[in-house]
Amino acid sequence: MNTTKIRDTLVFLLHKFLERPVIAKEQAAERPEYPYLAYKFITSGNEREGMGEIEYFPEGREVIRKKVQVQHCLSFSAYGKTEAETRELAEKAKKYLLFIGYQELSEKEIIPLRATEIQNRSVLETEEYEVRYGFDFFIRSTQIREKPAQPMEHFTIRRKA
After folding, report:
1. E strand spans, 48-130
2. Helix (H, G, I), strand (E, B) or coil at 49
């Protein structure tokens, strides 16, 4: 599963559950009304060690397919006008990702691994123009990689006597 599909799935499911806008962080577009949730991929596609499962298709299909477990980290931040509504939105999002929506995410091949504690991410502590609370969320997904197989024309098998 590629990053775009992961993003689209997470945004759709979180928006449906939270009933609040879910947007990408650090974009130039106009922001929605408070409160809302923003996300950003921190790491994307870190392969776990190992070769994965390799499948060969000798029946005329010259392709080698490799399944690889890939880990991603996303940063979620809730934005709001008050501390109460912002923290509540962050808690609700985390609860969905780790517990309520676990089965639904798993069925879509996104496996929740863990999340960090919810932290205060407000920029200015003195002037409360915007309150931010957030957490980092780690998931695992499967990517399938394919490459052309190099057919062997001739080969020799030697036996030791």
Report:
1. 53-56, 63-80, 110-115, 119-120
2. coil
